[in-house]
Amino acid sequence: MLTRRTLLGLLSATTLLAVVPAAGAVERRPFDRAAFDAAVAAGGPVLVDVNAPWCSTCRAQGKVLGKLFKSRGYKGYQVFVVDYDSEKDVMRSFGATQRSTLIVFSGGSERGRLVGDTRAGSIEALLAKGL
User: Fold this and answer.
1) Angle (CA) 15 29 107, round 5°
2) pLDDT band at 74; cut points 50, 70, 90
3) Are strands 101-106 and 46-51 parallel, antiparallel or unpaired?
4) Per-residue DSSP letters for the chain?
């Protein structure tokens, strides 16, 4: 049985995932271990976004990411969204304990992370570590 919170979370997540790709050229998709592992093994830039649809900090980060992903230099990124409310096991596998955590991978390994930071300059510096 779906609880009200779960239903609202799924509705918000669906809305967020539908809006953000239109804002930029980079597709945000729900976390999938096989797809993530393949993307990291390929060596290209990968962003893991630990996100909660009800989180204002996550929304602020999403707006910054949307603007940055419109720029030509960040179009190669693959973005995987980890749902804070329902994917605690995935969060643990990344050592992430909080929502609004952004983790960048490149060349097969983690290059950097931010937690709770919504400043455009900080997020841009993090993304640059993946290029």
Assistant:
1) 150
2) confident
3) antiparallel
4) ---HHHHHHHHHHHHHHHHHHHHSSSPEEE--HHHHHHHHHHTS-EEEEEE-TT-HHHHHHHHHHHHHHHSGGGTT-EEEEEETTT-HHHHHHHT--SSSEEEEEETTEEEEEEES---HHHHHHHHHTT-
* Burial zone of 118 (CB within 10 Å; 0-12 exposed, 13-18 middle, 19+ buried): middle
CATH value at residue 121: 3.40.30.10
pLDDT at 46: 96
**End-to-end CA distance of the chain, in Å?**
43
Determine the pLDDT at residue 34.
Answer: 96
Q: Which domain holds residue 42?
A: 4-128
Question: What pTM was estimated for this model as a whole?
Answer: 0.79
